[in-house]
């Protein structure tokens, strides 16, 4: 069996397409291990021809992009880097590099190299003619906020919900990167530009139509108004609108991000004991769509459970599960953020001398090594 068993090139392409279809069905059922295996098998049949990228470009691009997504979800970072390198080398146009760039940004973020992720996003946005202000001052921020407020004040929620869908590929990718940049800057405590980012995404959405990431941008915008600007009524309005827009759009792939960012505000306005469960909803939505940001949602859930008075032993067990999942995905950021909170929870149940869960040193996809001792404080 295998590639050696095919009779000719035409048969190899047929089998590659069959593996592509099987992999898509496995992804639909959230079986990313099986999907990755199918995509890799499809690639192996294409490789029977040295010039397969030129001769079967569209098929090659789709197989490599989907294999890369599954490799990331399965924490197969070496495979991911080889796949994205191939895409970046063989892509015929900048647009065909979009998915490889996107998954590389996420890998850089979770590997702990957030500044490199930010730089890659900024460079790519510049190529898309979407540069942000070089100087972020309070005056510049207020100008963007005031302009966005004036635009939105003229539009009802029903009018916004009736907007057409964004179709421009470059603008779609720019919106995706801007939403990622918002999260990256938040991770490294450089939040000065975040309101400008959410305002820019909203302006793009009003100009070119609503993208699958527009609900997340509205949730980020609403959370900024409420939690930073103390405009809770206005911020909560846009958080609720984000959830309505999320339900209206046909794609469910980014529901987890919208739920994650909207819950930051909801726990301040709605009863906390019930609203923190929305972080679990975000976790489930992320997992269903194959998004490793799921561990960020479960981490926030654990922290909120700790401070809201939930049963401590259950909180500690949940934290252990999240840290185990973070270790599997080599997610340095969540591991680092969770360790201090985990120690607090241990002390509260009388285990102040107990060590944190045993961990081996982790090495991420960029050769950087992490151990608990590096973050023991």
Structure description:
With 377 residues, this protein is mainly α. Helix content is 70%, strand content 1%. The chain has a two-stranded antiparallel ribbon with strand order 1-2. It is globular.
Would you kindly provide a brief summary of this structure?
The protein has 377 residues and is mainly alpha-helical.
Key terms:
two-stranded antiparallel ribbon; mainly alpha; disordered C terminus; 19 helices; 377 residues
* Lateral arrangement of strands in the main beta sheet: 1-2
Structure summary, number of beta strands: 2
Work out the radius of gyration.
22 Å
Structural class estimated from helices and strands:
mainly alpha
Topology:
Elements: H1 9-28, H2 32-46, H3 52-55, H4 57-73, H5 77-90, H6 98-110, H7 114-127, H8 138-153, H9 157-161, H10 169-187, H11 194-208, H12 214-228, H13 232-248, H14 255-269, H15 272-275, H16 277-289, H17 294-308, H18 312-328, H19 332-348, E1 362-363, E2 369-370
Helix pairs in contact: 1-2, 1-4, 2-4, 4-5, 4-6, 5-6, 6-7, 6-10, 7-10, 8-11, 10-11, 11-12, 12-13, 12-14, 13-14, 14-16, 16-17, 17-18, 17-19, 18-19
């Amino acid at each position: 069996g295998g590639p050696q068993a095919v009779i000719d090139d035409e048969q190899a392409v047929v089998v590659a397409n069959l593996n592509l279809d099987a992999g898509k069905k496995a992804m639909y059922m959230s079986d990313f291990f099986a999907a990755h295996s199918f995509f890799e098998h499809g690639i192996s049949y294409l490789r029977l021809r040295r010039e397969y990228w030129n001769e079967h470009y569209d098929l090659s691009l789709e197989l490599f992009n989907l294999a890369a997504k599954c490799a990331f979800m399965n924490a197969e970072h070496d495979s991911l880097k080889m796949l994205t390198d191939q895409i970046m080398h063989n892509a015929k146009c900048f647009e065909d590099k979009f998915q490889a760039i996107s998954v590389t940004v996420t890998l850089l973020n979770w590997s702990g190299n957030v500044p490199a992720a930010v730089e890659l996003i900024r460079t790519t946005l510049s190529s898309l003619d979407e540069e942000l202000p070089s100087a972020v001052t309070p005056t510049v921020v207020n100008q963007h906020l005031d302009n966005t407020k004036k635009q939105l004040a003229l539009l009802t929620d029903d009018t916004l919900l009736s907007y057409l869908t964004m179709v421009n590929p470059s603008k779609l990718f720019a919106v995706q990167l801007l939403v990622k940049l918002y999260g990256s800057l938040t991770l490294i405590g450089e939040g000065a530009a975040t309101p400008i980012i959410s305002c820019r995404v909203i302006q793009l959405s009003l100009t070119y139509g609503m993208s699958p990431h527009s609900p997340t941008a509205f949730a980020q915008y609403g959370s900024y108004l409420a939690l930073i600007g103390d405009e809770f009524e206005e911020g909560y309005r846009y958080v609720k609108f984000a959830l309505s827009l999320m339900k209206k759009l046909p794609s469910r792939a980014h529901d987890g991000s919208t739920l994650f960012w909207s819950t930051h505000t909801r726990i301040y306005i709605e009863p906390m004991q019930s609203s923190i469960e929305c972080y679990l909803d975000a976790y489930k939505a992320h997992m269903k769509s194959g998004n490793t940001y799921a561990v960020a949602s479960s981490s926030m859930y654990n922290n909120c459970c700790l401070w809201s008075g939930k049963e401590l032993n259950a909180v500690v067990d949940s934290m252990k599960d999240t840290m185990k999942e973070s270790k599997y995905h080599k997610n340095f950021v969540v591991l680092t953020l969770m360790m201090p909170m985990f120690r607090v929870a241990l002390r509260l149940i009388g285990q102040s001398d107990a060590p944190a869960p045993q961990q081996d040193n982790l090495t991420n996809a960029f050769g950087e090594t992490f151990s608990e001792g590096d973050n023991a404080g």
